[in-house]
């Protein structure tokens, strides 16, 4: 991976503007000394006011680096520049590690893991990936198997297991059917402490679609340990935030399903993640048809019912990423039931015709740039109870 030079800036963000009003003379006609005293007091008051205003400024540190095939933007609020720079350097190292471990084409670490799973042997899993494997098992079960990272053989067959797939003829039906018959599943994986084992040799893990989400979660945990209470990470349009931006909510853009432009804005604060699964990522075009990396485990083909799915989740980005993929595969008709099973209240699904399908909570929260956009609201049988609202 070619590493671009970080773009870093340092500025102070004022929570509000302060206007210094020039005081009126407190005395009438008096001595010159009295007038000079008055002017001196006024100047002193103005100086103290300016110093007080400066002390209320909140430092904001921003930087950018490359990982997971694109730019990652980081904003840290509320700590001094040197501490923020040190925290940012540690965060970038975390991203570089998971880029090498999970995302790069033919990652040595993932090759060794998949070779061990295919051999049916028991082996020690890398400690850094154990939480990822355990959590994705839970998410796969909650999604009814729609989100399933064990279909690595299918993503390889389709040629979408690389950052920029080249245009090529899609695989034939026979090859796809043969892989489907092996029925790989996250339920085939045994994780006992650090020991990993698969009961199905067809299991091949592919975490490319959620690698950046897991890296964001690890990075946020690292920032918190360093005393950071407010920060935002934006990795290619997927976002993880904590705290707020100088007393104001973070403004998070929601991308259009077409991949061009912004559909709307979300104002959020606290511990919140936003993730979008889309046909515009890791795709190739063959004879006018787009083939992408969101593979439906039930059919072996790229999902066709929806063009994208966006999930806003009060919590970790990994949950938002797994749910977004499951909802995109479920499509406009089935996604509400899957959202309920996965504990998702805020969801947006765009169908193949560009129509918007939203949960009631997302409809209340999303500020569409075009207020006249037609949309369908899909009530959930019961919205999950959250400890707080992402907008607060």
UniProtKB/TrEMBL annotation:
Catalytic reaction list: L-threonyl-[protein] + FAD = FMN-L-threonyl-[protein] + AMP + H(+)
Domain of life: Bacteria
GO function term, MF aspect, one: transferase activity
Annotated binding of Mg(2+), by residue: 209
Keywords: FAD, Flavoprotein, Magnesium, Metal-binding, Transferase
Enzyme kind, highest EC tier: transferase
Needed co-factor(s): Mg(2+); Mn(2+)
Cofactor detail note: Magnesium. Can also use manganese.
EC number of the protein: 2.7.1.180
Renumbered residue ranges of the record's region Disordered: 1-31, 373-392
Matching Pfam families: ApbE (PF02424)
UniProt record similarity statement: Belongs to the ApbE family.
PANTHER family in the cross-refs: FAD:PROTEIN FMN TRANSFERASE, THIAMINE BIOSYNTHESIS LIPOPROTEIN APBE
Protein name according to UniProt: FAD:protein FMN transferase
């Amino acid at each position: 991976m070619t590493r671009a030079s970080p773009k870093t800036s340092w500025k102070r963000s004022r929570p509000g503007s302060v206007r210094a009003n020039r005081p009126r003379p407190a005395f009438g006609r008096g001595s010159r000394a009295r007038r000079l005293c008055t002017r001196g007091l006024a100047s002193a008051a103005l100086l103290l006011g300016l110093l007080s205003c400066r002390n209320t400024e909140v430092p904001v540190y921003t930087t950018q680096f490359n990982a997971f095939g694109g730019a990652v933007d980081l904003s840290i609020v509320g700590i001094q520049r040197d501490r923020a720079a040190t925290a940012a350097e540690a965060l970038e190292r975390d991203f570089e590690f998971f880029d090498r471990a999970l995302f790069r084409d033919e990652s040595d670490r993932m090759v060794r893991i998949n070779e061990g799973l295919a051999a049916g042997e028991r082996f020690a899993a890398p400690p850094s990936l154990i939480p990822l494997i355990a959590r994705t098992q839970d998410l796969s079960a909650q999604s009814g198997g729609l989100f399933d990272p064990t279909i690595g053989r299918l993503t390889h067959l389709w040629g979408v297991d690389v950052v920029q797939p080249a245009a090529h003829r899609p695989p034939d039906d026979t090859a796809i059917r043969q892989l489907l018959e092996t029925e790989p599943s996250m339920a085939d994986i045994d994780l006992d402490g650090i020991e990993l084992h698969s009961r199905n040799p067809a299991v091949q893990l592919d975490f490319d679609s959620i690698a950046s989400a897991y890296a964001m979660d690890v990075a946020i945990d690292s920032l918190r340990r360093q005393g950071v209470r407010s920060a935002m990470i934006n990795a290619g349009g997927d976002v993880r935030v904590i705290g707020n931006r100088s007393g104001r909510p973070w403004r998070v853009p929601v991308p259009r399903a077409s991949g061009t432009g912004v559909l709307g804005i979300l104002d959020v604060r606290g511990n919140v993640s936003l993730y979008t699964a889309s046909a515009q990522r890791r795709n190739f075009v063959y004879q006018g048809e787009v083939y992408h990396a969101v593979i439906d485990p039930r059919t072996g083909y790229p999902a066709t019912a929806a063009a994208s799915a966006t999930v806003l989740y009060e919590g970790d980005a990994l949950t938002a990423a797994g749910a977004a993929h499951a909802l995109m595969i479920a499509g406009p008709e089935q996604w509400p039931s899957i959202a309920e099973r996965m504990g998702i209240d805020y969801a947006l699904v765009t169908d193949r015709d560009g129509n918007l399908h939203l949960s009631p909570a997302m409809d209340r929260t999303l500020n569409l740039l075009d207020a006249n956009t037609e949309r369908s609201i899909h009530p959930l049988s019961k919205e999950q109870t959250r400890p707080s609202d992402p907008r607060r």
